[in-house]
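User: Could you check the structure of this?
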Amino acid sequence: MATMNPNQIRSLPGFSPEEIDPQVVVAAYLLHRMAALPKEAIGDLASLATELAECANEDELRGIVTTIKEILFPELLGEMMEENSEELNDENLSKYGKMVGETIRRLRIAKNWTQEVLAASADLSQEHVSRLETGTYSPSRKTIEKLAKALSVQVRDIDPTAD
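Assistant: Sure, the predicted structure tokens are below.
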């Protein structure tokens, strides 16, 4: 795909600053980012969109939005952590994701469940469960709650930092 410079873009019909709808530009950019994702990640985004619609409070919303950002903009992960906490960094987030993922895996195996069974019980995709177990993604609060309910454990059993 050929890259156009800003002057070339401005000369196109409908692309003058007065004619550009920022919402359309953002939507197009997000679609471009999504098109480059693996199919499984798109499924995760769909699951997260459902969670977003059922979000009960601001903490849940923040967790879901952070997970969506992790999927769409992995290169910004370090910046997102700096915004949220002085204690968070790539290493700590990675350790947290791996710790939670290992706990999910241990609890699942203790029930003699496959990832597919856990995913169905928690209303998640098997691919999402897999990525959580490997620490590829950090789960949102809502996802942890779904997993805890499916596994018949407390949220703190999965995430000891939960309050």
